[in-house]
Write a structure and sequence with these properties.
With 213 residues, the protein is of the alpha+beta class. It contains six helices and nine strands. It is 27% helix and 29% strand. A nine-stranded mixed beta sheet has the order 7-8-6-5-4-3-2-1-9, sandwiched between helices. A hairpin with a 2-residue loop joins strand 4 and strand 5.
């Protein structure tokens, strides 16, 4: 736990493990996934600049041209319990961001967290999004979170298919936006390919998926 972070809430089985994970994507690209740090503001800014307008809209559900200093501070200076984020970088070029996965606990529903996964366009479709979601789920379980809530554009078919494959409950939230509630308990996850990845990471059986450095 980083110095100054909040104490682990009561009822959590084990403390949050802030580790680094190294693995390979489907095409063999080596990736390092680690908790985001306060000094990652430039990394986050450059990654955002490499997102297409469509990817930015899907992430923020609104047109966003740039991240302000206030937003960068909020996204990088976190407590690692109620607000947690993984940063994925190339293992051979660690100043090149590939994606971010983040959850923020809901104040009125402490066992639920809003979650989002963003992958830079050039690395989409290689399995990074599923890996990031699995690692995010493991971190959330350690922090006492049992469900992820995600808001997804109705036309974002790849993300909708992924969340559906995890047994998510769905309902329409607003015009063009679907709300997904994804269970994180391994016993509630289906035996879909994505479900198996989340189960393996949650149970710390990460050998073929990712391994601690």
């Amino acid at each position: 736990m980083r110095q100054g972070a909040k104490e682990i809430p009561k009822g959590i089985a084990h403390p949050l493990r802030l580790e680094q994970y190294r693995t390979a994507l489907r095409d063999g690209t080596l990736v390092l996934v680690r908790p985001i740090r306060p000094d990652d503001k430039d990394l986050l800014r450059s990654g955002f600049d490499r997102l297409s307008p469509a990817s930015r809209y899907r992430r923020f559900l609104a047109p966003v041209e740039e991240l302000s200093e206030t937003e960068l501070k909020y996204l990088t200076e976190i407590d690692y319990v109620d607000h947690f984020a993984w940063a994925a970088v190339r293992a051979d070029r660690r100043d090149e961001g590939m994606g971010v996965a983040r959850y923020i606990r809901l104040k009125d529903e402490p066992h639920v967290a809003e979650a989002a996964v963003t992958v830079v366009d050039e690395y989409q479709g290689r399995g990074l999004g599923t890996l990031l979601l699995a690692l995010l789920g493991a971190a959330a379980l350690a922090a006492g979170i049992r469900f992820f809530r995600a808001y997804v554009l109705a036309d974002n078919i790849p993300m909708r298919d992924l969340l559906d494959s995890l047994g998510a409950r769905t309902e329409f939230d607003s015009p063009g936006v679907v709300r997904f509630d994804v269970p994180l308990d391994p016993e509630l996850l289906p035996d879909s390919p994505a479900g198996k990845v989340l189960k393996a990471v949650a149970q710390h059986v990460v050998g073929p998926i990712a391994y601690p450095l």
